[in-house]
From TrEMBL:
It comes from the Bacteria. InterPro entries: FAD/NAD-bd_sf. This is FAD dependent oxidoreductase domain-containing protein.
Length: 172
């Protein structure tokens, strides 16, 4: 898996949570500069993909800092609000991403006793990956579509590949 311990890594992400209040947002909204997700309690989760590269896990941003202010400014650009929400907390997330950015699926090592699936695209790919897993583990077949996603692609590597950075919403 890709490293998650240094500033600027593609695996580091910043989420902002607003205080609960009545807001005119009832669905997910994704733009090129802001993603927002309403919560059942009336709060919002805000994310700006481009802001992730400045987040340092050793120096977490504050609810009144530049990152929080920028997320609120972006929110005001896309949603008409009677008054500005307040950021209740910021959370640094660590994305689970295979080191080369691609899904890993298949049996690991010699024999067929340990099957692994690692992906950052679980919400999107889960039904397909589960079906492939059933075909290989339960039915004993080999799924050709997985040939370039097998764990053995990492065998013999002398150095860790660079993890690609998501550049547009949906890539992450």
């Amino acid at each position: 898996m890709a490293a998650t311990d240094k500033a600027g890594l593609p695996t580091i992400g910043l989420l902002a949570y607003t205080r609960p209040r009545a807001l005119p947002v009832s669905r997910l909204l994704t733009t090129s500069r802001l993603s927002l997700r309403p919560q059942p309690d009336g709060s919002l989760v805000l994310h700006g993909l481009d802001l992730d590269r400045v987040v340092d896990p050793d120096r977490p941003p504050t609810t009144r800092g530049a990152e929080a202010e920028e997320l609120l400014r972006r929110l005001e650009e896309v949603v008409s609000l009677a008054e500005r929400p307040e950021i209740a907390r910021l959370q640094i997330g660590r994305r689970s991403i295979p080191v080369d950015g691609k899904t890993v699926e298949g049996f690991v090592g010699e024999g067929e006793w340990f099957y692994a699936i690692a992906t950052h695209s679980g919400v999107t790919l889960a039904p397909l990956l589960a079906e492939y897993c059933v075909q290989e583990v339960v039915r004993g077949g080999r799924v050709e579509e997985l040939s370039s996603f097998r764990p053995e692609r990492f065998a013999g590597l002398s150095q860790r590949p660079e993890t690609p950075r998501a550049t547009v919403p949906g890539d992450q």
